[in-house]
Here is the input.
Amino acid sequence: MLIPELLSAALTTTTMEVTVGTARRRWEPDLMTMTRSELHRLLDAVPDDTLEAAQRALEPLADPFLLALANAPVDDEPETDEERVAVQEAREDIAAGRVRDWDEVRRELGGE
Here is the structure.
């Protein structure tokens, strides 16, 4: 999908070659000259059927947690036997219905 690639390039300010159909274009983020009005103009040009994709692309930029998550390094450590067992147990708990919703956990922790 093109939008995550463009977002990634924008976050790292790298240049990339973009191919749409038979057209090929060099895309270079120009972050120093982008203004809010220019960004609004671009958003107004987004077709209605791609608004959800635009929202998913922009939300990480507006939320510090999502931005940190988007920029986090990939976990390249191999999964341990202990982790594999824990994941399998969690899947079995979900399949057996041994789960609680977030509201229940929050009440239990005194958050509500």
In short: The beta strands are 16-20, 23-27. DSSP finds six helices and two strands in the chain.
